Amino acid sequence: MTRIFYKLLSILITPHSYKSSKSDRVRTDHRLLRYPTLDRVINTAARGAIPVYKTTPITALIKEAGLPSGIVALEHAKLRFVLRLKTIDNQHLLVSRLKLVIRERGCGAGTARGPLTRIQQLGLLIPETQRPKLLCPHFSTGCRTDPTEGLTKEEAAQAFKEWWQQLPPEDYTIFSDGSEQTIDRKRCVGYGYAIYRNGTQIASGFKQI
After folding, report:
1. Are 43 and 57 in contact (CB under 8 A)?
2. Residue 11 in domain
């Protein structure tokens, strides 16, 4: 099973080989037909994981084992790689390889050429999105001073909302609080938190200590 696992990993590690959605042709990398090879590896792993007869249909075998077919596994690996290409920071080396070549001569000068490399083809599968920025951790100015500055609760809340709306969209704001109470003569301490980015809550949680 260890050899099967490493063989499966070596096939899925490079998502450049996949079945085209426009035709039944199987694209190959270095003339290695990975689609049938991957199917054989998955089928062998499924037969080793669950007790079945040799005559068990492959469709039923894959369904009972909870494993994807070869083409589904390759498609999933390809989409994972494309998602990574779209979510890495602008300073990553792969970002420059995604840019299309601009024509410098001829009637089409100034326009972008079609994808010339396989990585450019993968980059066109999903739309562009906002890339993360690599920023050093920092503390806001005046974060260690009294935030209310002697204002009333309502005035301080309004001032905080105005300050919060002026934060850059790449900044994260974390609100946390804790409490302690006695239940059945036992001290219970808990905490909760909420994480916001660009005014939208992206995570929250609570737990008892």
Report:
1. no
2. no
